[in-house]
Amino acid sequence: MSYVAIADRDHEQEHHDPQTFITKYIWSQDHKVIAVQYGLTAIFVGLIALGLSAMMRLQLGFPDQFSFINPENYYQFITMHGMIMVIYLLTALFLGGFGNYLIPLQCGARDMVFPYLNMLSYWVYLLSVIILLISFFVPGGSTGAGWTLYPPQAIMQGTPGTDWGILLMLASLAVFIVAFTMGGLNYVTTVLQARCKGMTLMRMPLSVWGIFIATILGLLAFPALLVSAIMMLFDKTLMTSFFMPAISSMGADPGYTGGSPILFQHLFWFFGHPEVYIVALPAFGIVSDLLSTHARKNIFGYRMMVWAIIAIGGLSFIVWAHHMYVSGMNPYFGFFFATTTLIIAVPTAIKVYNWVLTLWEGNIHLRVPMLFAIGFIFTFIHGGLTGLFLGNVTIDLPLSDTYFVVAHFHMVMGVSPVLVVFGAIYHWWPKITGRMYNETLGKWHFWMTFLGTYAIYLPMHYLGFAGVPRRYFAMGNTEFLPDSAQDLNAAITMSALFVAATQILFFINMIWSLLKGPKSDPNPWNATSLEWQTPDHPPKHGNWGHELPECHRWAYDYSVPGYEDDFIPQNVPPDKAPAGRDHGEDH
Amino acid sequence: MPLAVVLILLVVGSLLFHVLSPWTFTELASNWGMVDFTVDITLYVTGFVFVAVNLFMAYCVIKFRYRKGARATYEPENKKLESWLTGLTAIGVAAMLTPGLFVWAKFVDVPEEAHVVEAVGQQWHWSFRMPGEDGKLGEVDAERITNDNPFGMDPDDPNGQDDVLIHSAEIHVPIDKPVKFLLRSKDVLHDFAVAQFRVKMDLVPGMNTFLWLTPTVEGRFEILCEELCGVGHHTMRGAVIVDSADDYDIWLANQSTYSELNAKSVGNADIGAAQYAVCATCHGQQGEGIAAMNAPKLAGQSAWYLKRQIMNYKRGLRGTDPSDTFGQQMIGMVASLADEQAVDNVVAHIRTFPDEPVEATIAGDVNAGAGEYRVCAYCHGKDGAGVQALNAPRLAGMSDWYLERQLQNFRNNVRGAHPQDYYGFQMGLMGQSIYDEQAMTDLVAYINTL
Amino acid sequence: MEIGLIALAIILATLLGWLLKQSFNTQPWVAEEMGETAHHGPLGGSSNTRLIALLTLLAVVTSFFALILSAYALRMELGDWVPMTEPQLLWTNTGMLILASLAFQWTRNGAVQGIASRLKPGLILTGALTAGFVVGQFVAWQQLQASGQLITDNPSNAFFYFLTGAHAVHILGGMYVWARATTRVMLGTAEGRAIRRSIELCAIYWHFLLLVWLILFGLLLST
Predict the structure, then answer these.
(1) In order of start, what are the domains of chain A with their CATH numbers?
(2) Is the CB of C74 less than 8 angstroms away from the CB of A266?
(3) What is the CATH number for B405?
(4) Cβ of residue A202 closer than 8 Å to a chain B Cβ
(5) Which helix H or strand E contains A266, and what residues bound it?
């Protein structure tokens, strides 16, 4: 409640721009600056998580070779890598970063409806990141319970970081959820209330749709994580027994009775599964816009795409226990959750078909953002299809907890969204900075990232088939595994280190562009959506100068017959250009 | 254009990789061929979609790539096409789901004749229990678990008296008979997984879970814990040995029931004193250890550990490596201990020796050693006193030169390499990170300070 | 998890129903009259904007409490659950919270009808009653502690402390907004329309938390 009231402090500020450096770039209430702050912070922690993954890969590829990696810090690395990538990088970047930047611009608003709250959201997010980073340095180090934080081991001796690490982890998550809720209230309300004249829901670009639905999922799902985090904190500090049964730990009785570890898993995955779509839906939306723009063709089946986003969002709340087929929960749940899970494949497949059909009869410019978008389709198809293995309860029996799972979710939730992130950054970079990047360098970056990640994750599935379990510091001599499995691991490590190293190309490109890049055209891609039609380039505080734009058409009027240009911006009135025509029933 | 070529190459390459890959399902050794069948169906359906959609996309990229003056078609949607694709997808999904549900229904329905084995998990090893002739398992309770009652048995429960207790990470089962594994955890989550059997299930403290299978191939199949259970997760191994009916009966006859184990006499220190005379030549009259003889201190070491190591020598699990000169000597020496009772007696005698401090012979960087010891402390305790529940012997106050030699043996796979030496195997894996000379010296120097 | 799912289904159904009303199935590529579905508000929003933000927040809070109740229901089924006897004081507290809600409604009506003289006594009365509720809850905790019913004794106790604590935190959040509004009314710095909006929204929040409390209290009593 307090958030709402704080926000009404001042809402007429669009006419007096902030003056000093500090109000302009640090304590800024401009959604574009906040978006960049969110983005930079997320990428910063993401780089830390990338470093952690390099350490893990060193151990897996070349066990026994690096004395600075031991079982204790290995489990800490995997935990922090997962948690940072899922929550602090991807969630924050897609919603806090792209959500902040795109919602007001694409909806034709001057800013988020509660700018002060928006600013607060970033600073609270930063606080959660700082708490997270502190946990690396406390006695005992950060938690090593795996990013799923399953009790009892998350809070019992025998797991790294049970003194302080787990407390800071839970506290950081709670703070993150507060930050997310502040941001999320803003995004939802802005989409619902601050769209410009004529911007009906069905005229919104799919980016906004994806972010909007993902935000709703987040608002409803994150409380489950909060509840489980608080209850686990109670179990750890006050010795309650929400999740903790009577156990004998290392020969001693810690004093718990009667709790249920499965209860935690239900709560965790009630958040955890929607979380997958909190990351995926914005990526779906953004990639749709990239494809349409660079293929010079309207997105195929727009209405279907919107419905698919909504259907996936809704269904994502009733599939959570597919993460728990072999958890020991009532096995009869398996029938229900396998069915709902595989049903989700249908709307997801429709999205894939429509992306590909958008390319059909297009006029495809293979610029850097488009390369990333097509790369995304490829990896997403792969990751989506392997999801059909794991969602099917029977196939989960041999494959769960193996590297097949790791490969699957990295393909679908790691590589795919990250390709979209890069594509989106290349796409909107000229709008954000007013400068162009080096196209050749961008292409190199794409090829190395795309081929490199595929070389990591395609073979990794086969380690899973062979039966290599995930979260193993070392395999030792395991009879049923061929020795070549270790060679494969070494090859995967080489690819991983290669991909990690090539990301430097991206940063070189961006820094070069900021310093020396040529000034970009206000609308270099000839795109239709409103953010490319701002009066200033890059857009100033308040976005639209004196007059808000009016929206006269959907965001996909590309190559409209009878019009000279191959695109008609959303704010071009019908008397200046044809207003599209009804092609829906022609076929 | 390069993009389209690469897409096509990736599709072809992925297919080739799949066909040529030597990394695939291990040879099936249970009745769950239906699982493999379901996987195959899914592979065909998803493989088809993977190839079709990606090749179509590559075709689009070639055919409709940017040409000056070309213009895209304006086509908002195509209801008919979309309905067709939706329908076909739904059929494909149903084709994958149906066999899955069918097999799962079999999995949740345990055959009544299945014989029961309880697999008990704890950080970081396995043990097993089977009902005796009454076919009923006795009551157990986590709160009753002690070093002397590791299963947490209820001493007053008549059903439990004839339960067969297996204090080992190896369990035998007869071939071609369905077996139901009841799964119980003492502390945290674990997972009972055998790759060749295809099925797995978590162990959840506070409740019982299960899985069932019919083994169809004789042999030894490794059990891996596949649910993260702490820092020693990757070392939590065991084995299911599938025997012919006859071999199984022989094995079973050699196992002890709860009441038999309770009735077993403890070691007699007086009798042991006579046996110890052989040991005293090298290990000293008071078990103080003689470095010149390469014999470590025994006094103060826990009884369970001494017994296990003597038994390991006797069973050929330790000291068989040709480069382990001193271990080979031990094999000869322990031959004089006729049976388990003799071992118990001599261990009981060793326990009567005073625990005198030893002289440190190794110096190193104690601070660096403290860092190395953090991992060791999980099992051996912060004070190095050893923890029986974790099978971790005492380190502090024992012969330091011996510690260093054993670390070297573990590194060189001289010790812990025998497939049945599960605890040696654990040490081998856990210690991976400390196996450089300097780290070992520092570590032992630190242990000297404890 | 049924409780969580039901709450979620209601929230999502509401949203979906609203979306469907938004001329959802139009063909967006076809020309449309301007303005018929136009939707635009100034930055910072009309009272409508803030109402929507509040409703969104209430949806989040609903999800939060529904999930705790789901956990409650699941945990209750395990063997060691011993129902606890709630302190009698809770009845008094409940009465106070009901009165607080009524007082807020009375204040709100005054604000809407422009009866300025009602604002000060109304706000103060509401605040006092609400503070009384929070203090009363705290005293109830003290009584439980004194009678030896600690948080670790039984999961039913643990949930009692957790639920009442979480509810009280939300009340305190509301009190913060109430305090801001009251200060402005007292100092006379409030602009009429703004304060009216603030009070209207606050009243909704109060009723909502009362409803949450009645559900929690009913559940605690019945189990």
Answers:
(1) 27-242+260-526 (1.20.210.10), 527-579 (no CATH)
(2) yes
(3) 1.10.760.10
(4) no
(5) helix A261-294
- Answer whether A73's CB lies under 8 Å from A141's CB: yes
Query: CA–CA separation, A106 vs A286, rounded Å?
Result: 12
Measured between alpha carbons, how far is C11 from A274 in angstroms, rounded to an integer? 15
Q: How far from B210 is each of A40, A400, A461, B114, B180, CA to CA, in Å?
A: 48, 16, 27, 12, 7
Listed by number, the residues of chain A in 267-296 with a beta carbon closer than 8 Å to a beta carbon of chain C are 267, 270
Report the residue of chain C nearest A11, measured CA to CA. Answer: C44
DSSP code, position A316: G
For residue C201, the chain A residue with the least C-alpha distance is A1
Query: Are the Cβ atoms of C75 and A259 closer than 8 angstroms?
Result: yes
What are the tens digits of pLDDT across the range A495-515? 999 999 999 999 999 999 999
| Interface size, chain A vs chain C, as Cβ–Cβ contacts under 8 Å | 229
Alpha-carbon span A149 to A151, nearest angstrom: 6
The rounded distance, in Å, linking the Cα atoms of A429 and A92 is 18
pTM of this prediction?
Answer: 0.94
Instruction: Tell me: pLDDT of B413 over 90.
Output: no
Contact state of C45 with A14 under an 8 Å Cβ cutoff: no
Summarize the confidence of residues B199-206 as an average pLDDT: 95
Q: Which residues 30-49 of B have a C-beta within 8 angstroms of A?
A: 32, 34-35, 38-39, 42, 45-46, 49
Whether the per-residue pLDDT at C139 is higher than 60: the answer is: yes
Q: What is the CATH number of the domain that holds C127?
A: 1.20.120.80
pLDDT at B263 over 90: no
> Chain C within 8 Å of A260 (Cβ-Cβ)?
yes
Residues C121 and C159 in one domain: yes
Q: What is the pLDDT of residue C43?
A: 40
State whether C13 and C75 are in the same domain.
yes
> pLDDT for B141-163, tens place per residue?
998 999 989 999 999 999 999 99
Residue C80 sits at the chain A interface (C-beta within 8 Å): yes
B100 and B238 assigned to the same domain: no
Q: What is the dihedral of CA A483, A485, A490, A491, to 10 degrees?
A: 120
**Number of structural domains in chain B:** 4
**Residues pairing with B128 in the sheet:** B119, B166
Structural domain span for residue B216? 115-263
Q: Which domain holds residue C199?
A: 85-223
Question: How far apart are alpha carbons B158 and B163 in whole angstroms?
Answer: 10
- Residue A5 to residue C52, Cβ atoms within 8 A: no
- Whether the per-residue pLDDT at B166 is higher than 60: the answer is yes
Condensed to tens digits (0 to 9), the pLDDT of residues B299-314 reads 999 999 999 999 999 9
Q: Kindly report which listed range (A130-144, A267-281, B31-45, B407-421) carries the lowest average pLDDT score.
A: B407-421
Cβ contact B143–A253 (<8 Å): yes
**Residue C193 sits in the same domain as residue C116:** yes
Say yes or no: C25 contacts chain A, CB-CB below 8 A: yes
Closest approach of C89 to chain A, Cα-based (Å): 24
Output the average pLDDT for chain B: 92
- pLDDT of A173 > 90? The answer is yes
**Are residues C70 and C145 located together in one domain of the fold?**
no
Q: Tell me if B228 and A471 make a contact (CB, 8 A cut-off).
A: yes
Q: Where residue B157 sits, what CATH number does that domain have?
A: 2.60.40.420
Nearest by CB to A258, from C12, C35, C78: name it.
C78
